[in-house]
Structures are given as C-alpha cells and as structure tokens.
C-alpha cells in the first residue's frame, strides 16, 4: 500500500512539471524566436513480482512463481526544446532580423545568431529582435553584443544600415558578415533565459542554405491550441492521481483505526 502512495505521488509531481512547461510555453507564445519545450516523461524501472513458497514433493525446496510486473511511477526526465522554424512576420524595423532555415544537412541541425554574454562567453539565439546601443553596436534587447563572423561586435554606426540575404551588414561603406553559427544536433545545447542557448556551435557547413530577412522577426513556434489541450490533459491526469492517493489514504486509515483495533 505504501508503494501505491509513492506511485500516485510521482504521477502528480510529473504532471505538475508538465503544467509548468506548458504554462511557460503559453507565456512565451509571442516571444520572438522562442522554442517550445516538450516535457519527456519516463517510467521508473518495473519490478518483477514473485510468490515465494515451498515445494514438498519429491523433496522440500523453495520455489518462486512469477506473478507479473509492477510499475513504480513516472517522472519528467527533461524538457526538450522544439527547434522547428517559427512563422516569420514583417515588422519594418531595420534592426529586426529573421534567420530562415532553407536546407540543412542534418535533421537535428539548426542555425543561430551569435551573441556575447555578460560573462564574455558566446551564446546563441534565434531571437533577432535587436537594437543599436549608444556606441553604434548591434545588440540584443538585454544589451548583449551581436557578434560578426570574426568574433567582434557588429558596428552599424546607427539605425541606418542594410543586411543582405547572406547576412552581411552594410553600413558606412563597410561590410561585416554576421556570426551565424551551426550545430548538427541542437539538442546538445542548453536553454537559458532571454532566448539564449549555451553549448558548442561552429561554422556553417557546405550545403546548408539559409536567408537573413531584415525588417522581420521569427515568431515563437508555440502552438497555443495544442499547449492548452496538453495543459487540460495534464490537469485531468493530476486529478486522477489525486483521487488514487485519497483512496490509498482512506484504506490506510481503516487499516490503522479499524482492522488493527484490539477488542
């Protein structure tokens, strides 16, 4: 009976974490470049149950008769981002850039803008909602420098600049290629706040096609309808586990107060 408590409780905790992931997706449905999280629910290892007994003929010896397997609950192992391309909308702002995947050599591969984090390390993002700071550098809305192909911050000199489809920034007679990075397995990246990803990414391989569109943004790839449906499903499953837990609690109460009562 105590094992039933743990099994039902693990189900409630797993559904609570699914709810948190779906709520975060819905909250970021309008965040440019946001990649929806998909919770991965796994089961704990099954236990094979045996009936212990004795065999009396021809000689007495212990025997084990298999009864069947017993599930011991579930847990959310991790949240895996969906790196699928989001819809692109025009904004008309010269500092907004959308990175469009056209042909990638790997199914799990993805392209990213490269930025410099406050700790000096590189981060990667699909959020092209950039701006220009007081020194004329292209930055994210949080103030992180957007890096060029050479690894230095991109200097635009102001809001009046052009970006080609190949990702080359043209300003004040200078051409600076954007530092667009590629990873063949985006699932190896670690998701951080503000639309940033941490990990290893390198140069764009031959055969990878992409387009940079100025004056546009990649929208979040969250499907709000699907996320709401998953939230309702998770809530109902949470309620079911809750009722099971109450039933076990009621049975335990009877076992303590009635069955074990001395007369």
TrEMBL record:
One of its GO terms (cellular component) is bacterial-type flagellum basal body. This is Flagellar hook-basal body protein. Residues 213-256 form the Flagellar basal-body/hook protein C-terminal domain. It comes from Lentibacillus cibarius. SUPFAM superfamilies: Flagellar hook protein flgE. One of its GO terms (biological process) is bacterial-type flagellum-dependent swarming motility. Residues 5-35 form the Flagellar basal body rod protein N-terminal domain. It is found in: Bacterial flagellum basal body. Belongs to the flagella basal body rod proteins family. It comes from the Bacteria.
């Amino acid at each position: 009976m105590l094992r039933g408590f743990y099994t039902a409780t693990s189900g409630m905790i797993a559904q609570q974490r699914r709810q948190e992931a779906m709520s975060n997706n819905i909250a970021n449905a309008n965040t440019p470049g946001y990649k929806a999280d998909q919770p991965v629910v796994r089961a704990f290892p099954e236990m094979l149950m045996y009936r212990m007994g004795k065999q009396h003929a021809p000689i007495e010896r212990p025997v084990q008769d298999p009864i069947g397997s017993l599930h011991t609950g579930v847990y959310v192992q991790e949240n895996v981002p969906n790196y699928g391309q989001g819809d692109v909308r025009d904004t008309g702002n010269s500092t907004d850039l959308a990175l469009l995947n056209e042909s990638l050599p790997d199914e799990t591969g993805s392209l990213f803008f490269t930025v410099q984090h406050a700790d000096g390390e590189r981060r990667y993002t699909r959020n092209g909602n950039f701006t220009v700071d007081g020194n004329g550098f292209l930055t994210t809305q949080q103030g992180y420098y957007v890096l060029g192909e050479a690894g230095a911050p991109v200097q635009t000199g102001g809001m009046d600049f052009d970006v080609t489809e190949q990702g080359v920034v043209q300003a004040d007679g200078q051409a600076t290629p954007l530092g667009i990075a590629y990873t063949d397995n985006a699932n190896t990246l670690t998701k951080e706040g503000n639309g940033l990803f941490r990990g290893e990414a390198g140069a764009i391989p031959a055969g990878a096609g992409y387009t940079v569109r100025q004056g546009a943004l990649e929208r979040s790839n969250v499907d709000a309808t699907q996320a709401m449906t998953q939230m309702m499903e998770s809530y109902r499953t949470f309620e079911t586990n809750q009722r099971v837990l109450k039933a076990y609690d009621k049975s335990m109460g009877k076992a303590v107060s009635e069955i074990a009562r001395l007369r």
